[in-house]
Each structure stands twice: as C-alpha cells, then as structure tokens.
From TrEMBL:
Keywords: Hydrolase, Protease. SUPFAM superfamilies: ClpS-like. It comes from Microbacterium nanhaiense. This is ATP-dependent Clp protease adapter protein ClpS. GO terms for biological process: proteolysis. Belongs to the ClpS family. PANTHER family: ATP-DEPENDENT CLP PROTEASE ADAPTER PROTEIN CLPS (PTHR33473:SF19), ATP-DEPENDENT CLP PROTEASE ADAPTER PROTEIN CLPS1, CHLOROPLASTIC (PTHR33473).
Length: 97
C-alpha cells in the first residue's frame, strides 16, 4: 500500500468525521453573460436583494468568482446545477478552514 493511498484514506476519514464542514457554490466570471442578467439570476434563484445580487455580481466581475451559497454538499451541487441551467459557470468546493 503506497503512502498516498493511506493519506487519501485518512483525508476521507477526516472528512467523514467532520460532516459539518461546509461546502460552497462558486460562480465564475465568463465573457458571455451580461452583468444585469447575472444580477437577475441571483435575485430570482437565491432571492438576493438587489444590493446583495449586485455585490456578488461585481465580485464575479472584478475578482473572477464569488461564493453565492454555503452549506451541505448536496445542496451546493443543486445550486451549481441550477446556475448551469441559467447558463452561468459554477463549481462546488469545500469551504476553506
């Protein structure tokens, strides 16, 4: 058994031992969608206020990405799929500790 396999298994066990580690849905910048459309998607799907939706859109625009949701992995994957359905680029990641 190689050392990396052991390390991977330990990492998996650590994750399972800490199921409360939150996950995030991250929306990434793309050259296609208008800023106004991204704001509309965030308002419609997440129920963000105009102010919050605009703030997140500007993060995407200026920083290249923004965290739009945090919680259980399954829910974050549903959010990412919904963003794909709207034509946005989104991924799911473990929240930084």
């Amino acid at each position: 058994m190689g050392m990396s396999t052991l390390t991977d298994r330990q990492a998996d066990e650590k994750l399972e031992a800490a199921p409360d580690v939150p996950w995030q849905t991250v929306v990434w910048d793309d050259p296609v969608n208008l800023m106004s459309y991204v704001v509309r998607v965030f308002r419609q799907y997440f129920g963000f206020s105009q102010e919050l939706a605009t703030k997140r859109m500007l993060q995407v625009h200026h920083d290249g990405h923004a965290v739009v949701a945090e919680g259980a992995r399954e829910q974050m994957e549903l959010h990412a799929q919904a963003m794909h359905d709207y034509g946005l680029w989104a991924t799911v990641r473990k929240a930084p500790q």
